[in-house]
Input
Amino acid sequence: MGSYLVSASQVVPGVPAHAFAAVLPTPLPALFDRRFGPIQPIKEVTDQVGEWSTTGQTRTIRLADGGSMREELTEVSAPDAFGYRITDIHGPMRPLVAEVEGRWTFAAEGGGTRVTWSWRLRPANPVGRVLMPVFGWCWRRYAALALERVEQVVAAQPL
Output
């Protein structure tokens, strides 16, 4: 059925290593505390052991609408990127999305760092595939709100 890629980015202050070190361990509710359309804020994270930093770690993400999903950290390539896989999706996203491969990248740009967040979505079924452009439009606006928080977190992190 193929996949659908969505991506958003923003330049934040500091070098890539600084931005990477600030973003990776930040609790998800601090970054994803606002909704856009049907995409809900993250209410809490459970089942995480230790700081989020090691390939193979897993956790459960719980959304404000009661939905949940399992996240596994699949790549940690400091200071350039980290990646994860989202599976076991429950709630309103379940009829649309079977799995997500997410990735954050950090690249020097001008006097700061371009932080790019992307999702490669695997639709749950043909209806989900048809609705991906609409979901992608909502996701990009949700991502813009999250990237505002990322900029705040990076700016607040001591160099």
Summary: The chain has a mean pLDDT of 95. The radius of gyration is 15 Å. The longest strand covers residues 97-109.
